[in-house]
Amino acid sequence: MAVTGPDVYDGIPKVELHCHVEGTVRPSTVVELARRAGHPLPVDDPRQLYRYDSLDSFLAIFWLVQETLLTRDDWARIAYESLVDGAAHGLRYREMFFTPARHLAAGQDLGEIVAGLTDGIEAAETEVPVRCALVADIDKAYGPAAGLELVDRIGDLLRGGRARRVIGVGADSTELGVDLAAFAPAFAAAGRLGLRRTCHAGEAVGAGPENIRIAIDVLGVERIDHGIAIVEDPALLRRVASEGIPLTVCPTSNVVIANRYASLAEHPLPAMRDAGLLVTINTDDPAMMGLDLGAEYRAVADGCGFTAASLAELAIDGIRSTWLDASEQAALRADFEGVVAGLPVPEA
Ligand SMILES: [Zn+2]
Predict the structure, then answer these.
(1) Region 199-226: what's the mean pLDDT?
(2) Is residue 62's pLDDT more than 90?
(3) How far is the CA of 183 from the centre of ligand 1 (A)?
(4) Around ion ligand 1, which residues have CB less than 5 A away?
(5) pTM for the full model?
(6) Is residue 203 flagged as an active site residue?
(7) Of 40, 77, 162, 250, most Cβ neighbours within 10 A?
(8) What does residue 2 show for φ and ψ, rounded to 5 degrees?
(9) Among 233, 344, 227, 250, which residue's Cα sits nearest to residue 296?
């Protein structure tokens, strides 16, 4: 297989395991929903707001966008548009984060949020070749008690048959000044419910690899979101590689949102892959960076020196990082391999 050309990165079939639905809202939808929510944005084009100098400065804008989501239909709309937009750039399967802490604090009903997201996912799945499960993210800024409460309420929905798309929990938001180990009861409760577990760790400037170790050893996670600080701890890196614990890496986000690197040329993704880590490439919050999944692959090719063929291999490898069962993984792999084999061969 040899692949190249302007559209090959869209053409590579992909899983995406690190994408926040609230960070995928089309700018035009943000404007419309903000107006309807009664607090129009301070600018006409939300893209003018999308400038960040740290993870925490990003979170302030992220919350501004989240506040526009009020009804079940709003959640359905953003999930639907997110998947349709993703499918146009090769997305075939996503385990998608939603972070309801702020909405629950404002009085929204978790069952309605999950129902809305499910409506949107199911509508998209009938229109485009994509499938999607949900991962409920704990917002670390709201503290461990709110995290446990969220997991308990997900449990209520599961028992009532109202959360069939929710397959896991994670934890996101701010990393500095947060005692990650304090979230152990929430993660233990998630485990008892049979939910899969992942966690953002080792992302923010100033965050070393300690949170990665805590996430694995104290929270019992099966996957690490970001985890780029792992390159600072060779022993931990060797362990995570040998245990096959996946890392969901978001290269452009680490430059644009976390400001951890000045450019993709500094990003450790190539070193992580060379060291045998199981990594996937993800967009994190694509609409808030003018990004899409095909563009992310193209940016990694240009900025980190990967060939399109090696990125297609990485995309197929990423299926192992999903929480699909073995037969579903095998079916998806056969599908991906067929698509990749048919990608355009360059003339020259
Ligand atoms: Zn994230």
Answers:
(1) 96
(2) no
(3) 17
(4) 284
(5) 0.95
(6) yes
(7) 250
(8) -130, 130
(9) 250
